[in-house]
Fold:
Amino acid sequence: MAKIDHINQQILRELSQDGRISNLDLADRVGLSPSACLRRVQELERSGVISGYRAVLNPSEIGVGFVAYIGVGLGEHTKAAQEGFERALQRVPEVVECHNITGTIEYLLRVECADLSSYKTFHTEVLGTLPHVTSITSYVVMDSPKDMRA
Structure:
């Protein structure tokens, strides 16, 4: 595993803000030579600290006008019920995040749809029909003043 010293923390911070920054600019921002900077980035990639790079999409430009977080409770707390639920969600494009959590519910989902009408269809015809689902609680996103997801 790569050592996460002060310089590596700076590199990770810069890359998380702009994954397409050139090595030359990155090296300048963190105070390293380009070759030393490149070696550190490659080691962070090799060790799995950096697991990939992604494009940040503009939701309105791809037809997403409605975002909600959904709390889902299951009626059975078995491994088979959880695996079945998780498998079913892999085929659902509206679900962009699925987290198995602790507490009064089993899952927290991030759902992105075109509009309220399409969310209602997803809620009723997809999520509401999955086996073992006993509760669905929707939290509609009004605004995202801070969103660090890449």
Q: What stands out?
A: Residues 34-46 form the longest helix (13 residues). The beta strands are 66-74, 95-100, 107-113, 133-140. The two ends are 23 Å apart (CA to CA). The longest strand covers residues 66-74.
